[in-house]
Amino acid sequence: MTEPDQETPTELDVPLLTEPAEGVPEVVSDASGLGRVIESLAAGVGPVAVDAERAHGFRYSQRAYLIQLRRRGSGTHLVDPVAFGQPADLAELGTSIQDAEWVIHAASQDLACLAEVRMVPQTLFDTELAGRLLGYPRVALGTLVEEHFSVRLLKEHSASDWSSRPLRPEWLTYAALDVELLVELRDVLAAELEVEGKAEWAQQEFEALVAGADIVAEPRTDPWRRTSGIHHVRTRRGLAIVQSLWETRDEIARRLDKAPSKILADAAISELAALKTPDRDSLRKIPGFLRRQARRFESNWLDALNRALALRESELPPLHIRNEGPPQPRMWAARDPEAAERLTRIRAVLTTRAEELRLPIENLLTPDYVRRLAWRPPTDPTPELVDRVLAELGARRWQRDLTVPLITPLL
């Protein structure tokens, strides 16, 4: 507890890091510049800090629009992948640092866009994930840097439209600072993991990230069912309208490489689909369809609406699709009281163990794995069998070592 005569430090008491120590490098956008970066990074030593800026919320694609790298003995480099084609082929850049550990904050967010430009790590260290394993309550890069180095990073450009050109000078400063202290942060967190006996846990997690770095995710089944506001749509005909409008919007967004929400808001789709007799007049009364961008494609929306209205009853989508996994836990008590009790008992022991280990419970064991095991446990749940089931689901060795002895007796 803070003493009455002491002042609690505020954000303003912590100095703001406004410029990289070596200044902001020029953005590399041609073959000769890329060659110099490759040569410089290959001559550097130790881990390589890697970051990528995307245009989430602005573009349909999740491609990288700027890649930042930093290595001791090499300095910081900013590479514009857009200048090298769509998608760019930066395999030579990735190969030049293939022997090094890549340090990435929240690697699961950047690995896909890096793989798209053929940059795939062989080993990595995820500073966000390390922070989670160490029990830090907040694991944003800025928070961890402030905690360990008593400086604040610029924050205000993380949600900028990085696809726009030219990139603004203040954005480039922000981007360079994102890798300025990343290797130093890695070193501090790695030492803490060793002290707490969690280094092997982290290693297994990082290896799992690397193993999936260049794997393309399976597309979701009926992604249109995730449209915001769809719970207001009560009929199969209404769902057909949602599907038709969603797929039309998706095709337009993909073609224009714009975020679907910039074309037409989810709320407009759901509002039209929830009407008893949707038509052109009712469409023109919904605010979302009156936005300038949406009005450009009014004929597309009307065609999509008419296609859905023309479907035969047998062609309409079902109100619900069968879930391959267990139902939502809130439904368990009514559908299977024993399973509900199992889940409650398992969650309780895992929560206690996670608190003892100073871990988020979801990092101790993925909640979906817990639900699947509790809903339909093995007929004869021996530790060996439970371990095998969790391994097949994707649980790491360290997670199974800690949780199988706790879970098995409760099944």
TrEMBL record:
InterPro entries listed in its UniProt record: 3'-5'_exonuclease_dom (IPR002562), Exo_C (IPR041605), HRDC-like_sf (IPR010997), HRDC_dom (IPR002121), HRDC_dom_sf (IPR044876), RNase_D-like (IPR051086), RNaseH-like_sf (IPR012337), RNaseH_sf (IPR036397)
EC number: 3.1.13.5
UniProt cross-references to SUPFAM superfamilies, sorted A to Z: HRDC-like, Ribonuclease H-like
Pfam families assigned to the protein according to its UniProt record, in alphabetical order: DNA_pol_A_exo1 (PF01612), DNA_pol_A_exoN (PF18305), HRDC (PF00570)
Matches recorded under PROSITE patterns: HRDC
Tagged with keyword Ribonucleoprotein: no
Domain (HRDC) ranges: 235-315
Protein keywords: Hydrolase
Keyword Kinase: no
GO molecular function terms listed in the Swiss-Prot or TrEMBL record: ribonuclease D activity
PANTHER family assigned to the protein according to its UniProt record, in alphabetical order: RIBONUCLEASE D
Name this protein carries in UniProt: Ribonuclease D
Annotated source species: Microlunatus panaciterrae
